[in-house]
Design brief:
Distance between the termini: 53 Å
Strand order of the largest sheet: 1-2
Radius of gyration: 18 Å
Number of helices: 8
Structural class: mainly alpha
Largest sheet: 2 strands, antiparallel
Number of strands: 2
Order of helices and strands: HEHHHEHHHH
Helix content: 55-70%
Strand content: under 5%
Number of domains: 1
Oligomer: single chain
Shape: globular
């Protein structure tokens, strides 16, 4: 029987259900732009399938990064390469936390539909759209900012994200990011 080093050959499940340590800021902002479009379309049409799609997308991104999310796959495999592969690195754990907040908001909105509380659903999706606009247009990730605050308060250990101590949360336009 051949013995193999498990460290050398990671399992398919482990490689699929892992979140990257760093994220491409351009990809994150483009995914947020898609969330804006889907959220606003939901608010206009009240099509519950759009909400289910958003719940699945957030769940997929929390569990597996871009590996199982249709929007993230579209962005990372097609749109970003068509843009010439721009890349600005940012830490992964805060982005994962922000995706988790999106999962909570969209799941809560879906639950309020079940309870026939459409006003609560519309408020939650409107809030989601506002924060997605901040991320996609200005580069401000509110979930990332809160993640850093929780690290300062000691709620999240520093070892979770060593790069996070140097995170800058100034609002940047796409032009400012392109200029470096």
């Amino acid at each position: 029987m051949v013995q193999r080093n498990r460290q050398q050959y990671p399992s398919i499940l482990k490689s699929t259900f892992s979140f990257p340590e760093t994220i491409n800021e351009y990809a994150a902002r483009t995914v947020a732009g898609f969330i804006v479009v889907i959220a606003l379309t939901y608010l206009y049409t009240h099509n519950v399938y759009l909400l289910v799609f958003m719940v699945y997308g957030f769940l997929a991104r929390v569990m597996a990064g871009p590996n199982l999310s249709p929007i993230a796959l579209l962005v990372t495999k097609i749109i970003i390469p068509k843009m010439g592969n721009p890349y600005t690195e940012c830490p992964g754990p805060p982005k994962r936390f922000a995706q988790f907040i999106g999962l909570i908001v969209t799941t809560s909105a879906l639950y309020f539909i079940y309870l026939e509380q459409l006003t609560a659903t519309n408020i939650l999706i409107s809030i989601l759209a506002i924060f997605a606009i901040l991320e996609s247009v200005m580069g401000f990730c509110a979930g990332c900012w809160f993640f850093k605050q929780m690290m300062k308060w000691g709620w999240i250990p520093q070892r979770v994200c060593e790069e996070c101590t140097d995170m800058n949360f100034t609002v940047n336009t796409k032009e400012q990011i392109a200029d470096g």
